[in-house]
Write a structure and sequence with these properties.
This protein has about 325 residues and is α+β, with helices and mostly antiparallel strands. The chain has 3 domains: about 80 residues; about 130 residues, Alpha-Beta Plaits; about 80 residues, Double Stranded RNA Binding Domain. The chain contains 11 helices and 11 strands. The strands form 2 sheets. Strands 2-3-1-5-4-9-10-11 form an 8-stranded mixed β-sheet. The chain has a 3-stranded antiparallel β-sheet with strand order 6-7-8. A hairpin with an 8-residue loop joins strand 4 and strand 5. Helix 1 runs parallel beside helix 5 and helix 2 packs antiparallel against helix 4. The longest helix has 23 residues. The chain is globular and about 65 Å long.
Length: about 325
């Protein structure tokens, strides 16, 4: 039992308060309803996509209830409190993380690659699966991946001795991180984009993949002309699969923009989107001292190697709870 808890009664009171926040009794009812729904063979025959969605929802809900029923320490309460904070519409979903080089020339391009690797390392540490979509984008598959990573979106600043400067001078570079949810098939199907608003580009894949890679134009990039939003995929084996993946990512970007712009219809999005290169959310300093500091939560550490190696828990938990 945690040292900060003086009695079993105090722990029970904390659990009781958390149960109210979780609406745990209502979740028990929802779990039974979902169990009944997915046990019906007809749903798997008639609408497999819906069945799989309900099955995933069942698993997530069961996990929360089992963790609540097994509370015996403050640590477990803290873990569930994070789940309470991750209650957004898409928080339980997989995530697509993209990085873009900003001001800083070669250093900025290198910084964007370093950030993408940092998120790959973080995902690996959580046991999530990572898949490369294109040179600057990865798909991260894991429960609550989007919820945990969504607040990483923004401008990240790096200060270091540039490996590209023969004089070994200190350089500052910027990169933009974009995070969108990996929409479920049913959600993606319900988002209709006029075909005339889309521009499709095909090319040969530059990465590892099936035997047809580099022989046929299997890589796909799709641009939403009214906004300029774009998404690409080149890691699937066929052009059809890459087109489907790129379209889903593009739709997620459009959904996020609709929420930001408070628009109800895709056709209302007629303004060209410009990257948000405003104030940075986090700074990473390698010289003349070592420090990583989040400018929103004020969390900081001197272990920059650890952070770039994927140790982001302290930053992300502070963002989630903030």
């Amino acid at each position: 039992m945690d040292k900060n808890i003086n009695s079993k009664e105090e722990l029970q009171e904390l659990a009781k308060q958390l149960g109210k926040k979780l609406d745990i009794e209502n979740k028990r009812i929802q779990l039974k309803e979902l169990e009944y729904a997915i046990s019906d063979p007809s749903i798997w025959k008639e609408n497999r996509a819906l069945a799989e969605e309900k099955n995933k929802e069942f698993g997530l809900l069961r996990d929360i209830i089992e963790k609540f029923d097994a509370i015996d320490s403050v640590e477990k309460i803290r873990e569930l409190e994070i789940k309470v904070a991750l209650s957004g519409k898409y928080d339980t979903l997989n995530a697509v993380v993209s990085t873009y080089a900003g001001v800083g020339g070669e250093d900025a391009a290198d910084w964007a690659r370093m950030l993408l690797q940092m998120y790959r390392n973080y995902a690996d540490s959580r046991g999530w699966k990572v898949k490369r979509l294109e040179d600057n984008a990865i798909e991260i598959k894991g429960n609550y991946a989007y919820g945990f990573l969504k607040k990483e979106a923004g401008v990240h600043r790096l200060v270091r001795i540039s490996p590209y400067d023969s004089k070994k001078l200190r350089h500052t570079a910027f990169a933009l991180v974009e995070v969108v949810p990996d929409l479920p098939p049913l959600d993606a199907e319900n988002i209709k984009i006029p075909p005339e608003d889309l521009k499709l580009e095909f090319s040969r894949s530059s990465g590892p993949g099936g035997q047809n890679v580099n022989k046929v134009e299997s890589a796909v990039r799709i641009v939403h002309l009214p906004t300029g939003l774009a998404a690409a995929s080149q890691e699937e084996r066929s052009q059809i699969q890459n087109r489907e993946k790129a379209m889903n990512v593009l739709k997620a970007k459009i959904v996020k923009l609709m929420e930001t712009e408070k628009k109800n219809e895709i056709t209302q999005l007629r303004t060209k989107v410009k990257p948000e290169w405003g104030s940075q959310i986090r700074s990473y300093v390698m010289h003349p001292y070592k420090m990583v500091k989040d400018h929103r939560t004020e969390i900081e550490t001197s272990d920059i190697e650890g952070v770039l190696g994927g140790k982001l828990e302290e930053f992300i938990e502070a963002e989630v709870n903030g």
